Amino acid sequence: MSGSLFIIAAPSGAGKSSLVNALLERDSGLNLSVSYSTRAPRAGEVDGKNYHFVSRETFLGMRDRGEFLEYAEVHGNLYGTSKPWIEAQMREGRDILLEIDCQGAAQVKRIFPSAVAIFILPPSMAELERRLRGRGTDSEAVIALRMQAAGEELGRAGGFDYAIINTVFSEALAQLACVVAAARLRIAQVGEREARLFGDLGINL
Question: In this predicted model, what pLDDT tens digit does every residue of 140-160 receive, in sequence order?
Answer without folding.
Answer: 888 898 899 899 899 999 999
